[in-house]
Amino acid sequence: MTAHDVIADLTAGAEDFDRMVAGLTDEQWTLPTPAEGWTVAHQVGHLAFVFRIAGLAAADPAAFTALTQRIGTGFGAFDRAVNAALAEYLVLPREALLARWRAERDAGVAALAVVPDGTLVPWLVRPIPAPVLCAAGMTELFAHGQDIADALGVQRRHTDRIKRIVEFVVHTWEFGYQANDLTPPAEQFRFQVTAPSGEQWTFGPADAAQSVTGSAVDLCLLATRRRHHSDLGLVATGTDARTWIGLAQAYRGPAGRGRAAGQFASSPSRA
What we know:
The protein is built from eleven helices and six strands. By secondary structure, it is an alpha+beta fold. The strands form two sheets. A four-stranded mixed β-sheet has the order 4-3-5-6. The chain has a two-stranded antiparallel sheet with strand order 1-2. The longest helix has 23 residues, at 130-152.
């Protein structure tokens, strides 16, 4: 994962998200999304805040560290900080919030783009490379964009840029266990997924006894908890892998309720 390539993919992903929300009406801005208690406006405000603090971490690490010391780094601290920050965004009318999102997005991407190669950026639990933080940003765009798409009743078109998110899901495969106070298995899983283009992507040892196969989009929907595993076409082989698909998540913090089985008729990757 090179810094240049992932910045380009993050930029394109953010532009895709912007196109989905740019022409919405005031009424659509207030539509409820599958995330309980959150409207479309909440989703946009959340992403604005995420890009804001990502840009702060890249441009002013000392200020970011001071911020995280104030809000805490324990499990759930970030969620509480996001919820508190949302009030600042939700008082804005639609056009002002849209402008704020774009400003935070542009500033965050610009700050991440100039982080020197090999430099770690402070983040919520530990410092991480800037390309990994960009992939985390793409995962946020994917997840909250799906919430908005579900609220609007539209189908999203994915490209092979989603590989960045798949890589992030594989990188964070232990988070679901941690969120449920469980010890992750010692054995690494094998992931074999099909890209939107039809290309095959594989991760992990070829001889692993535990494996997950299926659509790359489905894997991302699973790990962002935007679809219940029973509504996806993923196949888990092995006891540990079957347990994992029931608790997978690619983000820190409490697992939350996720989506219920049968809540959506089919996976967007198979619609």
